[in-house]
Amino acid sequence: MPAFGQLSRFGNRRLARSLAVAGTGVAMAALPLFGATSASAATTEPTTPTTAASVTAYPDNLDGWIRESLDIMAQQGIPGSYDAIHRNIMRESSGNPYAINNWDSNAAAGTPSKGLLQIIDPTFAAYHVPGTAFDPYDPIANITAACNYAADRYGSIDNVFGAY
After folding, report:
1. Do 147 and 141 meet the contact criterion of CB atoms below 8 Å apart?
2. Does the N terminus or the C terminus of the chain have fewer Cβ atoms within 10 A?
3. Is the model's pLDDT at 75 over the cut of 90?
4. Cβ-count burial of 164 within 10 angstroms (0-12 exposed, 13-18 middle, 19+ buried)?
5. Distances in Å between the alpha carbon of 87 and those of 26, 46, 105, 122, 160?
6. Res 164: pLDDT
7. In Å, what is the CA distance from 142 to each residue of 49, 87, 117?
8. Confidence of residue 140 (pLDDT cuts 50, 70, 90)
9. Would the pLDDT of 124 be above 50?
10. Would you call 3 exposed, middle or buried from its count of C-beta atoms within 10 A (0-12, 13-18, 19+)?
11. How far apart are the C-alpha atoms of 66 and 52, rounded to whole Å?
């Protein structure tokens, strides 16, 4: 099992983020060795506890979702900029991660567009980025999958200025 600071690439990201924000570290106790006359006889070199300080904390809001998605996209080689993602989110969902379109042709066909960037389930499944939640309503998963799709179809989310 990897050390806390070496979590799998995206596994337990939200747990790690929560622990980092809470300042959780590792507690250690020094006990005397058998035959030692004091607790100080049992101690050797001071140890530095492992902490989650290296884990980036993202706010749980639109800004944080975009920034976390951009970090994941950079690791996966998916192009895109903050401004383009924000522009498209505001047009598609006004920043509501639970937005659903129940009236367009996709909805009429039984696959409504969902989430921040209004992605349909088959497209989400095809362009899902491993390590993110497999949930089109999850903001980070929705953004990264939609940007992955836009990169494949248009070169980047930066090239999308209308419904896609």
Report:
1. no
2. N
3. yes
4. middle
5. 42, 51, 23, 24, 9
6. 82
7. 36, 15, 7
8. very high
9. yes
10. exposed
11. 22
Please, how many CA atoms are within 13 Å of residue 124, restricted to the half-sphere of its CB? 23
Q: Which amino acid is at 98?
A: Y
DSSP 41: G
- In 3D space, the residue among 126, 122, 117, 121 whose CA is nearest the CA of residue 146 turns out to be 117
pLDDT tens column, 10-53: 344 444 433 333 333 333 333 343 444 444 444 444 444 455 45
**Maximum distance among all Cα pairs of the chain, rounded to whole angstroms:** 80
DSSP per residue, 91-121 = HHTTT-TT-EE-SSHHHHTT--EETTTTB-H
Is the pLDDT assigned to residue 62 strictly greater than 90? yes
Which of the 8 DSSP states describes residue 141? H
Q: What is the dihedral of CA 149, 154, 156, 161, to 10 degrees?
A: -100
Cβ atoms of residues 134 and 57 within 8 Å: no
Kindly state the tokens that stand for 12: 């337990």
